[in-house]
Design brief:
The protein has ten helices and seven strands. The chain is globular. With about 250 residues, the protein is α/β, with parallel strands linked by helices. It has one domain: Rossmann fold, CATH 3.40.50.
């Protein structure tokens, strides 16, 4: 099977991954929700890509947003929360089943690193966003040279085992080139793996530089890359282990 077929099968059948999603509580999503609320007024039409079992869709719906959720997994959608007031679709986020200019916001949390074609997801997000619409992406920075230190402190093993100099090298290469250079790894979709539901099944080596450079080349204005004291420190924020990105589709971009 191809990598996309392996990933699709895994997410459609993995009870272990399902249980991992269901174990997340509101605290897990707090910063993500706070960020959306900061930039997007209630009443807006919002699409959450990779919505899983719909915890965040429900929370966003309770915050006053008109929410649509999509996920590639029929298993996850079958367990989704609050189906009465949220529009759920089993769909591939690289082939969004919506008209152009449909949403005020497209958001995702811990999705893009699992995509074999992240740039197509970004293109599709741009297509369905209204002028001045927001794109919100939360994800791990899988090439962060700080990430191995963090994992060591919490006693967790890296799923993508490379040396700190390797992570530092490829981050600096992107800083110098200032061009997106989407890189990938083979996913581990072994449901017996103790880290199932973490980053083992990731495909795209997600990082803020590839995303930022792509967005700037394709008619978006970056509003936020990270949060906290590092917002003004250009270099440091590119090395952080998490991506907290918000960008606006520019309305006069052809």
């Amino acid at each position: 099977m191809t990598t996309p077929q392996i990933s699709r099968k895994y997410y459609s059948e993995s009870d272990r991954y399902l249980r991992k999603l269901q174990s997340h509580d509101q605290k897990h999503f707090a910063l993500y929700l706070k960020t959306i609320q900061k930039y997007l007024p209630p009443g807006s039409n919002l699409l959450e890509a990779g919505c899983g079992v719909g915890q965040t869709c429900t929370l966003l719906n309770n915050m006053g947003y008109n929410v649509t959720g999509i996920d590639i997994s029929n298993l996850f959608i079958s367990k989704a929360h609050n189906k009465g007031s949220i529009n759920y679709h089993v769909a591939d986020c690289t082939e969004l089943p919506f008209e152009n200019n449909s949403f005020d916001c497209v958001c995702s949390k811990d999705l893009i690193e699992h995509l074999c074609q992240p740039e197509i997801f970004l293109q599709e997000s741009k297509r369905v966003l209204k002028n001045n619409g927001l794109l919100v992406i939360f994800a791990p920075n899988l090439i962060s040279p700080i990430r191995p230190f963090v994992y060591n402190l919490i006693g967790k093993e890296l799923s993508f085992k490379k040396s700190i100099p390797y992570f530092l090298k490829i981050t600096l290469q992107r800083l110098v080139s200032r061009k997106p250079n989407f890189s990938f790894k083979e996913p581990n979709c072994d449901d017996e793996d103790s880290e199932a539901g973490g980053d083992n099944d990731a495909v795209f080596l997600a990082n803020p530089l590839d995303l930022k450079f792509w967005l700037r080349e394709n008619g978006f204005k970056l509003l936020q890359q990270s949060q906290g004291l590092t917002n003004g420190l250009y270099i440091i924020r590119n090395f952080l282990p998490g991506i907290r990105l918000v960008a606006r589709k520019i309305n006069n971009y052809a």
